[in-house]
Each structure stands twice: as structure tokens, then as C-alpha cells.
Amino acid sequence: MIIHLIDGTYELFRHFYGLRRFNKGEDRPFGAVIGVLNTVLQMIESGATHVGVATDHVIESFRNRLWPGYKTGDGIERALLAQFHPLEEALAAMGVAVWPMIELEADDALASAAQIASGNESVDKICIWTPDKDLAQCVAGERVVQVDRKTKTIRDAAGVREKFGVDPALIPDFLALVGDAADGYPGLEGIGRVSAARLLSRFGPIESFPREVLKERHKLALLFKTLATLRTDERLFVDVEELRWRGPTEAFAGCVGRLGDDRLLARSLKAAAR
Over the stretch 123-133, which tens digit does the pLDDT of each residue have? Predict the structure, then answer.
């Protein structure tokens, strides 16, 4: 059994800006939503049986209270922001498990889902579909892997070590030191990727650093590590069979009508009948 966990927020951005290359500045109201549904349906048509999609229902979380510069929804184009909630509704209507996050982020949902699925011995592999470097901390051996759809890269634990110079468990420490511009925290000035990997290889996690290594910046590094550490305790489901796709719900017909792409219904019914 393979569990597929998809970063719905990333996919929505990917399709929105991908369409921009062809729409001459005229954004279809639900173009990105349709794109994500097509992507998920293609996975199902290719044999995926257990699928879950995490989304950011709001573009803030508990981390915004910890660091004022943490990412928000400011700057997201209105045409894109307007498709967040319709995507969640459409995925649910298509019969896909979807987790809209409010206090936590989509990344936390993916980490939590991977943690829950890992505890089931019948699960052979867990694929986390996102290029987000945060999720590298969830990789475990060859069983829990990160998949970058754009580059067609599958990254296991060895791949994480090759890319970042540290084991998956140390990714939060690594990001705390070097920062993450996408999430809005700067890391520690003067520490780059190579020096961060070297420090972590020598001393282990930041909590184990001798105080003289970071000096007065030790506390700040721990704060950034808190921002970078994904939550794995959200109880999104109990049994992995809750992620099994069994076909679209009755509501999907009306949903695709509103989206303006009836082909999705025919394809999903055909996939369910296999």
C-alpha cells in the first residue's frame, strides 16, 4: 500500500502561475482549481488508491504569534486567493480526503498524516508530494519519501543528506541556522548552508551546541527551530483506509458544473468503475 500526501496549497500556486503563461493575463475564475483536480485525478488514474490533500484554509498559523515576520497572505493575488476554499470544496466533492488547516499549516498536516500512516504496518511507502524543504524532516529511510513533481525527483533519507548535508531529523536545526525566506525568518547572519551542516554534524541539534558557539544568538536559533519544526500530532484520521478513494460523491456533478469542466466527472466515474 502506498499513501500519497499532496500539498494542495503548493499545487494551487503551481497551476495558477503555470496557466499565466497561456492566459494572456485573463485568469479563469477556477482555472487553478481545475488544474489541481486534474493532477489528483491523473494520480488516481495511474494507480494511486490512498490519497490525502492538505491545504492552508487561512494563510496564518500559531507561528505568526511567535515571529512577527512569519509569512501571511499579504501579497497573494486576489484571483489566486479566491480559489483556496473552492479547491477544498471540490476535492471533498470528488471524494478525496482533504485537510483545511487553520491554526496549523498544510505542512503540519502532511507531517501529521505521514506520522499516522507510518504507524500502520500495511503501509509500504508514504510519498509526500511537495518540493518544500520543510517536509524533508519527515523523510525516513526509503519508506517515507519526498516527491518533487516539477523536477521529477524522489528524495529519500540519503537524498536529503546529499542535498542538505544533514540527516532528515536535523532539517529544523538546519533551517533555523540558514533561514527560510519563503516562511519569513532570516536564520543567523554569517551562517550559510555549508557552515550550518558542519556545525550540526559536529555538535548535533542546536540544543546540544556549546553556548560559546552561537553566544547571545542561541535563544534566537531555538525560536527559529520552533518555527521550522513541523507538528505531527494533528489527528487527521485514525485508519489509513479513510484515505482510500472510492469515487466522487453525488455533489461532484454540481461542483464540476460550477467550475466549468464537466469532463472531470466522466473521468472520475470511469476511474471509480475500474
Answer: 999 999 999 99
